[in-house]
């Protein structure tokens, strides 16, 4: 990596910002190189916007919970100065109203309106439905493989529709809306979407969510969208319309995209490490263990936008200037040898003694849907490998096309062979 000279003689050289590839790619090699230089790295975001990525586990844990770190976009200097165009691919992450861009009491208010639906007890009550959907989808996966020489795309036929159907059922979304919701959300979260298409995708996604909310307002049901429309806090304040749409966007998009990547990555990892799969099928480890190690070893999110220091802040030995957009480098933190040991890049379900991974966040913005994601992934893996114990990835790992963009971390398709030929 090239370096820039410091502003005065004798000062340490300043690393050139690492240019994040908008088209994405595997984050692990670059993450390791950056992490070898320090826990925090300067990065260049699309459009030449300067940012930072916090990559070290300990530094990231502290940063995520720091009281002088905000999510509110008014703290984003480049946005406040008008340097972020309408079609900037990461603009939605920075500006969508709702709990993802709220701080303090406002964040707690918004989170409380949704949080009761994602308690461990409520999530466990969903398990029979998740199991039923998984069984139905496995029938479809088997049918797809039978039509194509024993090979089928597990991501398309199983890892995607399982969490998408579950989250849409929770929010009372008509099944006809599921495909456009995923298509539009994929464009919104990708970092290589052209500006004109990004603007159109955001407009169409918000219009679709508004239509879903309007339908529920006129005909409420036993679902979370109807509950949000009726909910109010202790002062009698209801969600504003922008907050409602922003909450639906966050919960429906994050509620399936992350779990989709998690299941896909777990299947790839278990197929590539048959000894670890044997630990689970032999009763020496659990499917929950497989989920947690996948979250650490191959996080479904590589770099999550954004947080902003509200003052110049020293993090991991590096000063991050006030107003800098900061990415949470979950993929790199999961393989940080300083935290997870010298074998941090090894997939090992028996790993003990290290810190808990950060892939579902930390601090006040810890992932609200974490219990649901964990349960869905464990159910999906158990059902899949119980029905198809010889399942294996049908093409070599290097030939799997990577996810579009540097936020999500997975592959675009996962061809699998359900049985040994």
TrEMBL record:
It comes from the Bacteria. InterPro entries: Cyt_P450, Cyt_P450_B, Cyt_P450_sf. Keywords: Heme, Iron, Metal-binding, Monooxygenase, Oxidoreductase. GO terms for molecular function: heme binding; iron ion binding; monooxygenase activity; oxidoreductase activity, acting on paired donors, with incorporation or reduction of molecular oxygen. Belongs to the cytochrome P450 family. This is Cytochrome P450. It comes from Streptomyces termitum. The lineage of its organism: Bacteria, Bacillati, Actinomycetota, Actinomycetes, Kitasatosporales.
């Amino acid at each position: 990596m090239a370096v820039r000279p410091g502003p005065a003689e004798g000062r340490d050289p300043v690393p050139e910002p690492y240019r994040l590839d908008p088209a994405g790619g595997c984050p692990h090699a670059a993450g390791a190189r950056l992490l070898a230089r320090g826990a925090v790295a300067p990065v260049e975001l699309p459009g030449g916007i300067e940012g930072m990525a916090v990559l070290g586990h300990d530094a990231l844990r502290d940063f995520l919970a720091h009281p002088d770190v905000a999510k509110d976009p008014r703290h984003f200097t480049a946005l406040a100065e008008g340097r972020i165009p309408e079609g900037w691919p990461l603009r939605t992450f920075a500006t969508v109203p709702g709990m993802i861009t709220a701080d303090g009491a406002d964040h707690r208010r918004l989170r409380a309106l949704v949080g009761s639906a994602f308690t461990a007890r409520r999530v466990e009550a969903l398990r029979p439905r998740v199991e039923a959907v998984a069984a139905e989808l496995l029938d479809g996966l088997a049918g797809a493989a039978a039509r194509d020489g024993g090979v089928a795309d597990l991501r398309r036929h199983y890892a995607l529709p399982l969490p998408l159907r579950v989250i849409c059922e929770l929010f009372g979304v008509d099944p006809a809306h599921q495909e456009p919701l995923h298509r539009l959300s994929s464009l919104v979260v990708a970092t290589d979407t052209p500006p004109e298409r990004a603007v159109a995708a955001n407009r169409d996604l918000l219009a679709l969510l508004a239509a879903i909310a309007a339908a529920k307002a006129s005909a409420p049901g036993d679902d979370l969208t109807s509950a949000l429309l009726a909910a109010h806090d202790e002062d009698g304040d209801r969600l504003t319309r922008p907050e409602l749409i922003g909450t639906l966007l966050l919960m429906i998009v994050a509620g399936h995209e992350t779990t989709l990547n998690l299941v896909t990555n777990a299947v790839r990892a278990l197929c590539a490490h048959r000894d670890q799969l044997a630990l689970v099928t032999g009763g020496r480890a659990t499917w929950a263990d497989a989920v947690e190690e996948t979250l650490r070893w191959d996080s479904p999110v590589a770099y999550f936008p954004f947080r902003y220091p509200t003052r110049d802040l020293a993090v991991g030995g590096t000063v991050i200037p006030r107003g800098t957009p900061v990415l949470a480098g979950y993929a790199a933190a999961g393989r940080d040898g300083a935290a997870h040991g010298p074998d941090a890049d090894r997939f090992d379900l028996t790993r003990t003694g290290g810190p808990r991974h950060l892939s579902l966040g930390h601090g006040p913005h810890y992932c609200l849907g974490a219990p649901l994601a964990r349960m869905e992934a464990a159910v999906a893996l158990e059902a899949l490998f119980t029905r198809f114990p010889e399942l294996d990835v049908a093409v070599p790992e290097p030939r799997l096309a990577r996810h579009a963009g540097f936020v999500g971390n997975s592959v675009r398709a996962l061809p699998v062979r359900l049985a040994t030929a």
